[in-house]
Design brief:
alpha+beta; 7-stranded mixed β-sheet; 19 strands; 27% helix; globular
């Protein structure tokens, strides 16, 4: 019996995905739960498994094609069973972004449907040869990530002019449309007409030499959109400090073999995460989020810490949960496992959600101080640089001390400079005097 295998539900509010690869050929025998195609959504790369065993008789999709949930992808000749219901995706690789973590970045009074006389991006910029609006009654041609960006900006995707093949709408088209609407609002408040309705596009780089264009991966697109939202939404300020970790490093090296014997690793990052978990209990503003729509502050009674991991697919942020209730051996074990899954592109959706504050350690790359970007709806991110030996004047003489650079970027809507200074100084002192962490943490 011929059974069609259909694209299953991939996640909340995800209706379509792009085919990255077809993993089988006509005539192949596949086992139940064997991956048949790999697709990419706005948040993940997913292998779609077969719900039954059988022989591939037809393939209905090709790499690069945009397909929808419920669409047939392959046909199998095999036995039908209860397992023929769409199987759940086996593997997920994604940015730490929840589908519902959205906030309108454009005031609703300028994001409404265009009124007579309102200038749109099709008026302010002469559309290219491929620019087109969706045909009435037909859905706009746009990827899930682009639709999501439009929703976050409060823009009707059908009002946007697509400049891609066949009028396909890209993220740049949505941002261009948003800039036009914002420019109109600014000019309306000034009471003067705009000198130019257009915003500058990239120059033609081919005039100066050869170029190569490559499409962004799904993770990179999501990262770009998320970071743009964070930068626009959050007024960032960065506080810097330094910690003398000479004694801490001596203690860490002493106990590292014992921790490794317990199947874990006692890394500096694990110790810092534990210090941060203790600090947010004393400074609850750093463990909160701002509900701008209701003018409220959401204080979280749990402590989940995200840890930025550099992978060949881009930056991922696995989340360690209930860090305040776990010891350093547990934290080290969880950190190792989550980082390994992220680098192997095997992170589960729950691995990458629910962080209250993020720690990013670039010390392994040799950096010192830097200004990390806050991941909305979080209100702070801690940056850690490379520790180095410095001559420090103590007790009447200079002595070599191991100094760790620290940076914390914070949301100035909620956190004041004095709050950030006290928070970062407390972390520095906890690292300088590990006993203080045990006493107060």
């Amino acid at each position: 019996m011929i059974t069609p295998v259909k694209l299953p539900e991939l996640g909340e509010n995800i209706e379509e995905a792009e085919v990255l690869a077809v993993l089988v050929s006509v005539g192949d025998r596949v086992n139940k739960d064997q991956a048949v195609i790999e697709v990419e959504t706005e948040k993940a790369s997913v292998e779609v498994p077969s719900p039954i065993a059988g022989v591939v008789t037809a393939i209905s999709v090709t790499p690069g094609e945009l397909i929808h949930v419920g669409q047939a992808i392959v046909e199998l000749e095999g036995e039908v069973s209860e397992a023929a219901e769409p199987a759940q995706p086996k593997r997920v690789e994604s940015e730490n972004v929840a589908a519902d973590d959205s906030e309108s970045l454009v005031p609703t009074d300028i994001a409404a449907s265009p009124s007579p006389g309102r200038r749109t991006d099709s008026d302010s910029e002469a559309p290219g040869p491929q620019a087109a609006r969706p045909t009435a009654g037909e859905p706009a041609a746009a990827a899930p990530s682009v639709r999501r960006l439009a929703r976050e900006l409060g823009i009707d995707i059908n009002d946007v002019v697509g400049r891609g093949p066949g009028g396909r709408i890209a993220a740049d088209d949505v941002m261009r449309h948003a800039r036009v609407l914002i420019g109109e609002k600014i000019e309306a408040r000034r009471g003067t007409p705009s000198a130019s309705g257009r915003f500058h596009e990239l120059p033609d780089f081919t005039r100066y030499g050869p170029v190569e264009r490559q499409p962004m991966s799904g993770v990179r697109r999501t990262t770009a959109q998320t970071m743009t939202r964070s930068w626009i939404t959050i007024p960032h300020v960065t506080q810097f400090d330094r910690a003398d970790i000479t004694e801490l490093e001596r203690t860490r090296k002493h106990y590292a073999p014992r921790v490794e014997g317990a199947g874990s690793r006692l890394t500096l990052t694990a110790v810092i995460i534990k210090a941060v978990a203790a600090a947010v209990k004393l400074f609850p503003k750093f463990n909160a989020s701002i509900d701008a729509d209701n003018d409220e502050i959401v204080y979280k009674k749990y402590v989940n810490i995200g840890v930025a991991v550099d992978t060949d697919q881009g930056l991922l942020v696995p989340v360690l949960r209930d860090v305040d209730k776990r010891n350093l051996i547990d934290i080290g074990r969880d950190l190792t496992e989550l980082s390994a899954r992220a680098r192997a592109r095997k992170s589960r959706p729950e691995d990458l959600r629910g962080a209250n504050l993020t720690v990013t350690n670039l010390g392994g790359l040799g950096t010192t101080y830097f200004s990390p970007l806050i991941h909305w709806p979080e209100v702070a991110v801690l940056g850690v640089g490379r520790a180095s030996n410095e001559a420090v004047y103590r007790d009447g003489a200079f002595a070599p001390r191991l100094i760790l650079p620290l940076s914390v970027s914070y949301d100035h809507r909620l956190i004041d400079g004095a709050d950030a200074a006290r928070f970062l100084r407390w972390i520095a002192e906890a690292l300088e005097h590990p006993l203080a962490l045990a006493l107060e943490g």
